[in-house]
Amino acid sequence: MDEKLKKYQEIHEPDFRSTVWVRIDRNSEVEKHETLRNLYDDIALIELSSDVPDKIKSQFNIARNLGLYTWYCYSFHQICELKAFSSLEFALREKFAVKRPGLKKLLKRAVSEGVLTDSCFSHVEIKDKNSTSYCERLIDVIPALRNDLAHGSMTLHHHSIVTLRKCADMINGLFV
Questions:
Q1: N or C end: fewer C-beta atoms under 10 angstroms in the chain?
Q2: Do residues 163 and 146 lie in contact, with contact meaning Cβ atoms separated by under 8 Å?
Q3: From the centroid of its chain, how far is CA 50?
Q4: Using CA atoms, how far apart are residues 8 and 93, in angstroms rounded to an integer?
């Protein structure tokens, strides 16, 4: 689909792509269409801890707001993810007090030094709190996803809220 500037009279209307998704209640198996309220509630639950420096929280909140506005402009999912990844890189730079190296090397350092472990992630079931097998995979995956978004791409999916969650988990893990 080619993106176009919304008409002025339509700027407060949801992007139709945001409204086609449904949620299935696991207990009743009833399908309900996605709503702005559901989206807001999901994003409101994704918070950085009080231990995270305010300047990082501020940048991450930009990503959260972009996530919220995907309701009105579906293509903001891509920008939301990119901002979440840049907030993670900013947090890594702050944690290690460095301007370089890049995201991949910073992730590798965080994992190798035990700063990031699988226990940082709310969605990962772990047997050993020091396990890093999930984190080790992310060392390659996150920079590849970020680079795809940052260097020109047609990538567009609705997973930005999942990306926000994962980035929040990692940022929180850096400042425990």
A1: N
A2: no
A3: 18
A4: 40
φ/ψ of 52, rounded to 5, equals -75, 130
Per DSSP, helices labelled H in the chain are 16-19, 36-44, 54-69, 76-96, 103-112, 133-150, 160-174
Angstrom distance (rounded) from CA 15 to CA 25 = 24
- pLDDT value at position 2? 86
Residue found by looking up tokens 């990844």 in the block: 85
Q: Computed over its alpha carbons, how large is the radius of gyration of the chain?
A: 17
Q: Which of 171, 168, 169 is nearest to 67 (CA)?
A: 168
d(C-alpha 132, C-alpha 135), whole Å = 5
Q: Point out which residues pair with 22 in neighbouring strands.
A: 33
| 83-89-115 Cα angle (round to 5) | 135
| Mean pLDDT, rounded, of the chain | 93
The pTM is what?
Answer: 0.91
> What is the spatial distance between Cα 66 and Cα 78, in angstroms, rounded to a whole number?
9
Strand partners, 33: 22
Distance CA 83, CA 67 (A): 10
